[in-house]
Amino acid sequence: MSFLRAIAVTVMLAAAPVLLAGEIPPGERRSGYSFMGPDTRAMQDDDTSNPGMLFVLDGETLWTAKGGSAGKACADCHGDARETMKGVAARYPAFDKTLGRPVTLDQRINLCRANHQQATPLPYESRDLLALSAFVAHQSRGAAITAADDPQLKPFVEQGRALFMLRQGQLNLACANCHDDNYDKHLAGASVTQGQPTGYPLYRLEWQTLGSLERRLRSCMSGVRAQAYDYGAPELVALELYLMARARGMPMESPAVRP
Amino acid sequence: MASALINVPARAKRGDVVEIRTLTSHIMETGFRRTAAGDLVPRDIITSFTCRYNGTEIFRADLFPAIAANPYLSFFTVARESGKFEFEWIGDNGFVSTASASITVE
Q1: Are A134 and A56 in contact (CB under 8 A)?
Q2: Residue B94, SS3?
């Protein structure tokens, strides 16, 4: 009997998926907002206390500022961002035909600068780049995330999903180990969230500034003692794309506030 | 690029206590941090904030290195007359930022 039981257990273990809990059903997805305390929620809800809005203000100024040797502003091609940029951030990272791969909103801004403004690209996490992407993302506030609808993105979403499930670093943890399997628990004083990227770029109180999703992903990687991918690396973009696909349909909150 | 977000009620009844909320853009570098090379990052903070109501100073605050980036200040005053609130932030390295907001008192 015990022999048979041993076989049964072995078969069950072999059949079990690598990650026991698996992915979050659509009805149980929650924004990081729902994991926060009332004070931080209040800070995000009021546009005059949300420090992310300072960056949106700066971005609005940059939108109409002429730049580069072409002497063109974003507004010269795109017009009023309130109309033209509505829902745009909700579908990024998006497929770029020339490059044949997905690009993030930050990368798109820099591609625009290089190709149409003949301006130097803004460094990742620089104030101007964050301000512009916050301003653009703010126009999508409340819009449902639609990233990854483009069929050309499928292999990249799969790559991102594989990276999300990949154990890495000295702690040998995959993103999924915390954000699929153990959300709602705590890591010391901090809530473990589902890692839904609904509010980027967002103001993190710990950072004392606005930051991109890539910065968030890189600090998670340092947290599991893994070597973080460089800003703009295809792996980070793929992860970002998978996260947005995973949050499909959830409303955008940019710029959000997080502890 | 210094910018500020101000929240003052657009209208109030005479004698009402109104809340004023201000948020301004500033890195508030403490002056205690060091770079990877060990050099001290020089202090760069806002040192003082004042609010004037139709020219009369109604609120003043001194700010110190332990205050977080993008300082948020909220305070109360009595709505006496229609007019203008003027805000001024002064800081290290000649930092000066101003903003204003109007109120109608009925």
Answers
A1: yes
A2: helix
CATH superfamily of B4-105: Immunoglobulins (2.60.40.10)
**In terms of CA atoms, which chain B residue is nearest residue A206?**
B68
Residue B3 distance to chain A (closest CA, Å) = 6
Phi–psi pair at B94, nearest 5 degrees: 70, 20
Domain residues of chain A, as ranges? 28-259
Taking contacts as CB-CB distances below 8 angstroms, the residues of chain B near A57 are 3, 5
Q: Do B23 and A48 touch (CB under 8 A)?
A: yes
In words, the CATH class of domain A28-259 is mainly alpha
For B8-67, the pLDDT digits (tens) are 999 999 999 999 999 999 999 999 999 999 999 999 999 999 999 999 999 999 999 999
The answer to whether the beta carbons of residues A174 and A167 sit under 8 Å apart is: yes
Cβ contact A125:A212 at 8 Å: yes
Closest residue in A to B24 (Cα) is A54
CB contact under 8 A, A47 and B68: no
**What is the DSSP code string of B27-73?**
--B-S--B-TTSPBPPPB-EEEEEEEETTEEEEEEE--TTSPSS-EE
Spatial separation of the C-alpha atoms in residues B74 and B88, rounded to whole Å: 14
pTM of the model: 0.89
Whether ipTM exceeds 0.85: yes
**Chain A environment of B69 (Cβ under 8 Å):** 51, 208-209
